[in-house]
Amino acid sequence: MGSFVTRYRIEDAKGRVMTEAGHFTRETDDAAEFLTEQDAIEECAWLPGATVERFQRYSDFPGYLPLVERALVKGASL
Fold first, then answer.
1. Which domain of life is it from (predicted)?
2. How does DSSP assign 58-78, residue by residue?
3. Residue among 29, 25, 32 at smallest CA distance from 10
4. pLDDT by residue (tens digit) across 12-55?
């Protein structure tokens, strides 16, 4: 049984979202997701005009984190 999860993403002034690679795209499915607002704010600090947006989505596996996010949460380097 799944549930809704809250995530954060970075958007630029044109409404594009930042990807894991650091590029901006209009495809919201490709957006880098952050678990906490603070993590997104820290990443957003070097991007003038960018904002942190909160969104919710349904997840069958609410505790699942992609490899990149697990590494960031645990402080490991890839």
1. Bacteria
2. EESSTT---HHHHHHHHT---
3. 32
4. 999 999 999 999 999 999 999 998 999 999 999 989 999 999 99
